[in-house]
Structure formats: C-alpha cells, structure tokens
Design a protein that fits this description.
Layout: E1 3-7, H1 11-24, E2 29-33, H2 36-45, E3 50-54, H3 62-72, E4 77-82, H4 87-95, E5 100-103, H5 108-156, H6 161-170, E6 179-185, H7 193-204, E7 207-209, E8 216-222, H8 229-242, E9 253-256, H9 266-275, E10 286-288, H10 313-322, H11 325-341, H12 346-366, H13 383-407, H14 412-423, H15 430-437, H16 441-452, H17 456-472, H18 479-485, H19 491-502, H20 506-513
Helix pairs in contact: 1-5, 2-3, 5-6, 11-12, 11-13, 12-13, 15-16
Organism: Saccharibacillus sacchari
Protein name: Response regulator
Amino acid sequence: MIKLLIVDDEQVGREGLEAILRKGFPDLAIEQAKNGKMAVELAESFEPDLILMDIKMPGMDGLEATEIIGGKYPNIKIVMVTAYDTFDYARRALKLGVKDYLLKPSKATEIKKTVGRVLEQIEEETREREHSRLREDALERVMPVIETDIVTQLLFDHVHEVHSDELVSWLGADAGSETFALSVLVPEGSDGAYGAIRDLVRREGAGWVGALYGRQIPIIAFRDNTRSFRVQASELAKMVLETGGRHVRDGWFVGVGNMCESLSQVRQSYREALLATPDPTQPVRYRLYVDKPEPGAIGTAESLLDLPDKRWEQHFFEQIRLGDWDGIRTETLDFLRRCENEGADRLHAQQRVSERLWVSSRVLAEMGVEIGTPTFSFQAQDYRQLRAETGAILDRIKQAYAEHLERVKPDTVRRIKQYIAEHSHEDISLEGIGEKFELSPFYISKLFKEQVGVNYIDFLTECRIDKAKKLMSDPSRSLKEITFEVGYHDPNYFSKVFKKMCDLSPTEYRKALLGGGE
C-alpha cells in the first residue's frame, strides 16, 4: 500500500486534499501534518512514499522540511503545494529534488492528475526494485552453481572466452589474478566436510570450491599479496584441515600446487597439488608441491631417482586421462628395470612408483573410477618382486577402469545432450548433470569434449541462443523477458553472449528478423 503525507498549516486545506485523494485513490494510506517539524517526524515514523508539502508555514517552512527529509530519505517523492507561483520558489524546489508542484487553489482534476503521475512513478520504481531483488536472489542462488562449474572448467576443460571472463567477473575476481590450486582429500563418510570447507573458503574470501566427487575437493585460491605465498598456502591448508576436527588424521590430506600468474594456468597448479599428495599413510597432513622431496639415490649423480618429476608429469597425466594403461604399465616397469640396472636404491624406487600409483588413483577418482588406495602389500625384497607387485597393481587399476567404461552406456553423451537441451532454461550445472547420470562432473566434461568437440558450456549456450532466436520472432515478447526465459539472469550478459555467438546484438538480430521492426 502506498503511503501519502499531507503537510499544511491550514486544517481546511489538509482535509480538502485528503477528501479529493481518498475519492480518487481509495487504496492510499493517508496521514496529515500541520507544520514542517511534524512532517520531519512523520517521515521517520509513518515512512510515506509521497508528501504533498505546503511551502508557506510558520516555524519550519516547506522548503526547509523538504531539504531535511530529502537528505535523510531520498526515495520519498515530494510535490510542493503553494499559493506563490514564483520563479524563486520553483528554482529552490527543483534543486531539492521536488517532483512536481500544485498551486493553491487547484481543481480536483488537476490534483488527481498531478498526484496520479507521481503514484505511477512510485509503482514503477517499486516493481523495478522487486524485479531487481528477485534477480539478485536468483543470482545468489546460482552463484554456487557458477563457482563449481567455473572450477571444473578451469581445471579440467577449456572455457569459451566470453564465459570465462564474464563468469569470473560475476564471482568478483580478475581473470589475470595470481592463483594456485589445492586438492583436498577427505575420508569416506565425512558427512558435512564439503559444506564446512566451502563455508570456510567463502567466509575467508580465499577462493572458489569445485564440485565434490568421491573423496576429492578441488579449490582455486587467489593470491594474497600481503603475505608470502608459503604463509598463505600453509595457513589455508591448515584451516581446511581444521574443519575435520579431531578426526583430521584419518584420511585427510591437502596438496598445494605452485602459484601461477593467471587463471588460465591454474590447471597446471592443480596437477601439482595432486602430485604433492604423498602416500596417505604418512603422518604429514598437507604439503606444498614446492616442498615435494626428490628421493635420494645410491648411484651416479644423474640417477633416474634424481631427475625432476617434470620429466614425466605432463605425459603421465595425459596417459591416465586417455586410459593408456598398457603404456603406463610398460613405462613404469621399464623405469624399475633401469633403476635396477644403474644400482638405484630399491626402497626409493618403490616410493617413487607408489607416488605415481597414488596420483593415478586421484586422477581416476575425478573421472568416477574409485579404486581405493593402491599400496604395496609388502616391502619387496628385490627388483624382480617389486616389478611383479607393481604390474599386479597396475593390472587391477586397468581392470577397474575397463569396468567403469563398460558401465557407461554408449549413448550417454546423447542422453546428456538431450537433457541439456530440454533443461537449458534452468540453472543447469555439471554437478547437477553428474548427479542425474551418476557420473563424475569431470568425467562428463571429458566425455563431452571428446565426443561432441565442444565443452558443455558452449553446447548449453548454443541451446539457449537457439531458443532465444525462436522467441524473438514473437514481437509481443520483450528482450528482457526472453533473457530470463532462456536461462540467463542478466540482460547485459545475455546481450554479450548473443553478440559473441551471432555477431549481432539481440536488438539488431530482431530488427533483421522482423524486417526492421521490433
């Protein structure tokens, strides 16, 4: 209900105005004030939307009261009522933001007309505020979806330029910010761990949390230049571990990758975070990749065990993601043979292979292949025994991978595409699709890119833009309505995406479609 305050030192004038307004606008809530001081007080207690303010009053006049009220409550609309039709009064009233004025005496029709114009403006502004509130609420709800998806895309897929820049800016970050990645391993049955970690990262403003799958949680953290990287990374890892309480030693671990110069490079930092993870049976609960020890070796200074991990890291990750388990098996066993031939320490060689097996299990978990912890059941007495046990572990991993592929139906991507097309107008996400099809969001991202040739965000965008084009043929629909109907929450963002996809703005496209009209 709109509230209106009538301010006039003459009771007859107040009563006359109220009678006219109640007849013309029966839904108004109306109060009266007999002077400027009372008007200022009622502005606080009554909270009117509109004030009809007489100028000439004893004590505090209408202009002075308007200045005070306008300073405290800028959303209140004020219409001046005066018997003095002079330029000086009009000029001062305009400077104070007065919306209109009425001359004493005025006809009832003129009063209704003037007040009606302002009431329409108030109603329009109220609708716009409500619309903005609903849009902000929708954005608030969709932010976690955007966050998990952008993390997934940045770490496991390529994001279309317009999406990466826009989505990153929506989340309040700069695509050129220095970042680093963390990989958090939580034990089975850690109910509430994901929510607690997400709340922590959000509360600290430290970064973004990706989707949970299996026991792993990826985090993209933003560099805080007020502290050294080591201090910031260590403190964040410790805070994450503290969310596990007294059970933090039971299966928890945080690996931290190196700092990179921008979000486009954060995928490498995440791989380093995985590589920083040692055998989970070790007492250490977090480790920075930069602190990852290189095992010593008995032999020459150029021992295989002294060579930096960079020699095989990139190749190894690609082998896992491609499912080249025969290649992994051949190269790993060859590595052990070469270690034996050069006389390298067997225990150190076993530890290096253990790390590779552990990393492979983490990468597979992202794809939805849970193989448990691939550890050696005993300490090998010689290299022959070590090769045999390593080969057996790799065979079990290969079998688990093959069984996973068998469970994924050949038409999975087709069904996912159909689901996206049918639900493109909703706040759809990789995480939600993963739950629907019981697959890892990371694995879905991989499947989609391999079989469709584009990432899922580009396909989702195509579905939305195609639907928008069809809706634009209906001239009764506004572009703002179409924006929300196809699944976007911001008309400006929709316009940018549309122009990126179609080389025309929505307005230009619609004019061409409708032959120059809208």
